[in-house]
C-alpha cells in the first residue's frame, strides 16, 4: 500500500512515499528448553502458561475452562511442575496448566515472575536479571492469547476482573494474610519409619512435587528425629498421583481436636428458594495454613531421596480438617448466602443482584 504526503513551502512540492506490506513470516517467538529440547511459544497475551495434555490426561474430567483469542474453549486437566533451562545461567521452576493445546506456552504469568522480556526484532528472550539473552526462532502459531475468562459484559465477569488475584496460582512471595496455624499435641516417643520403595513413574512424580513445594516454601530438608513414610495417593477423578505422608502412627499419638465438621443436610434445608449457585474450590487449601513452629519437625517424611518436613498443613495429618474448618468458619461467619464445608464453599442466592453482592462480599 502506498500513501503520498504533499508538503507546502517555497521549493517545489516534495513527494514522500511510505510503503508497507504484510509480513512474510509469523511474528511468534519460540524458545527451546535445553533440558527437554521442546520449543515454547513466548506469548505475552496469554494469562497463564500451558503444556499439552497427553491422551491419558484427556480422559480425566476438565478441572477448568480457558478461552483462546477466537473465543474457543480450552479444557484444563491438571497441573505439572517443570524445570526449564533457556541457557540464561539459571533454571526456571514453574507450575504449568495441563491443557488441550497443541504447543507449550510461556504466558504473561511466567514472563512477569522471572522478569523476562521477548525481543521479536532480534528473535530472542532477554533476562533482565542476568542481562543475558536466549536466541529463539519465529514461526507460525495457530494458538495464542489464552485467557482465564472470556471478555463478556456481565456482572460476574466484571466481578472477576475486580478481584484478579483470586484466580492466580500460589507463588513463593505470596504472604499469609491470616493468623491461623495448625498446632497438634502428641504423646509418646518420636515416630520413626524406613522409606518405602516407589515405582519409577511414581518416584519421578514425587520428586517433582517435592521440588515444587520447596520452591513455594511449603517444604524444607529436615534433621528431625521423626520420620513418617511417603505414600502416593491417586487424585480423585484423575490418573495423577499426590505424594502425602503416611501419618497413621503419628496420628495415633495426637490428641484429637473435637471441632465439628458441618453436616451437609443441615444447610441444604436453608437452600429452599435459591436459584443461583456458585461453588468455589480452593487450590491447595491445606497448604494455606502454616504449621506451628513447634510442630514442624513432627511432620518429617522419609523418602528414597531424603528427609523433608512441612511448613504448611498436609493431607493426612490428624486434626487438619478441624483446623481448616475452624479457619473457614471464621472467614465466612456472618456472610449471607455463604455455606462452607472444609475447603468447598457454596454461594446460594435468589436473585442475580443478591448473588453478585454475596460473591463480592466473600471476595473482599
TrEMBL record:
Residues 38-110 form the Peptidase A2 domain. The keyword Transmembrane helix does not apply. One of its GO terms (biological process) is proteolysis. Coiled coil: none annotated. Keywords: Endonuclease, Hydrolase, Nuclease, Nucleotidyltransferase, Protease, RNA-directed DNA polymerase, Transferase. CDD domains: RT_LTR. GO terms for molecular function: aspartic-type endopeptidase activity; endonuclease activity; RNA-directed DNA polymerase activity. InterPro entries: Aspartic_peptidase_AS (IPR001969), DNA/RNA_pol_sf (IPR043502), Peptidase_A2_cat (IPR001995), Peptidase_aspartic_dom_sf (IPR021109), Rev_trsase/Diguanyl_cyclase (IPR043128), RNA-dir_DNA_polymerase (IPR053134), RT_dom (IPR000477). It holds the Pfam family RVT_1. This is Retrovirus-related Pol polyprotein from transposon opus. The gene is pol_3366.
Amino acid at each position: 500500500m502506498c500513501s503520498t504526503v504533499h508538503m507546502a513551502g517555497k521549493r517545489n512540492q516534495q513527494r514522500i512515499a511510505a510503503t508497507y506490506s504484510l509480513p512474510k513470516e509469523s511474528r511468534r517467538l519460540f524458545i527451546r528448553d535445553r533440558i527437554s529440547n521442546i520449543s515454547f511459544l513466548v506469548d505475552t497475551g496469554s494469562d497463564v502458561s500451558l503444556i499439552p495434555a497427553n491422551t491419558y490426561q484427556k480422559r480425566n474430567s476438565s478441572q477448568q475452562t480457558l478461552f483462546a483469542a477466537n473465543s474457543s474453549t480450552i479444557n484444563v486437566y491438571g497441573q505439572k511442575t517443570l524445570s526449564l533451562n533457556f541457557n540464561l545461567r539459571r533454571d526456571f521452576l514453574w507450575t504449568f496448566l495441563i491443557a488441550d493445546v497443541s504447543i507449550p506456552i510461556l504466558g504473561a504469568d511466567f514472563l512477569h515472575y522471572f522478569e523476562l522480556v521477548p525481543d521479536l526484532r532480534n528473535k530472542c528472550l532477554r533476562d533482565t536479571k542476568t542481562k543475558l539473552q536466549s536466541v529463539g526462532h519465529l514461526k507460525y502459531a495457530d494458538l495464542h492469547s489464552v485467557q482465564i475468562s472470556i471478555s463478556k459484559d456481565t456482572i460476574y465477569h466484571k466481578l472477576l476482573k475486580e478481584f484478579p488475584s483470586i484466580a492466580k496460582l500460589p507463588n513463593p512471595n505470596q504472604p499469609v494474610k491470616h493468623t491461623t496455624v495448625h498446632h497438634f499435641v502428641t504423646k509418646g516417643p518420636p515416630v520413626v519409619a524406613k522409606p518405602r520403595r516407589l515405582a519409577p513413574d511414581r518416584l519421578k512424580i514425587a520428586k517433582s512435587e517435592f521440588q515444587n513445594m520447596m520452591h513455594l516454601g511449603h517444604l524444607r530438608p529436615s534433621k528431625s528425629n521423626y520420620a513418617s513414610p511417603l505414600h502416593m495417593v491417586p487424585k480423585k477423578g484423575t490418573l495423577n498421583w499426590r505424594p502425602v505422608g503416611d501419618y497413621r502412627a503419628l496420628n495415633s499419638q495426637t490428641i484429637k481436636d473435637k471441632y465439628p465438621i458441618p453436616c451437609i443436610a443441615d444447610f441444604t434445608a436453608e437452600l429452599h428458594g435459591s436459584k443461583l449457585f456458585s461453588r468455589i474450590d480452593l487450590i491447595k487449601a491445606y497448604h494455606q495454613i502454616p504449621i506451628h513452629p513447634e510442630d514442624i519437625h513432627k511432620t518429617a517424611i522419609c523418602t528414597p531421596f531424603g528427609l523433608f518436613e512441612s511448613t504448611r498443613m498436609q493431607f493426612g495429618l490428624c486434626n487438619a480438617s478441624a483446623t481448616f474448618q475452624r479457619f473457614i468458619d471464621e472467614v465466612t461467619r456472618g456472610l449471607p448466602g455463604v455455606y462452607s464445608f472444609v475447603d468447598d464453599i457454596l454461594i446460594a442466592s435468589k436473585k442475580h443482584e443478591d448473588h453478585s453482592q454475596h460473591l463480592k462480599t466473600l471476595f473482599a
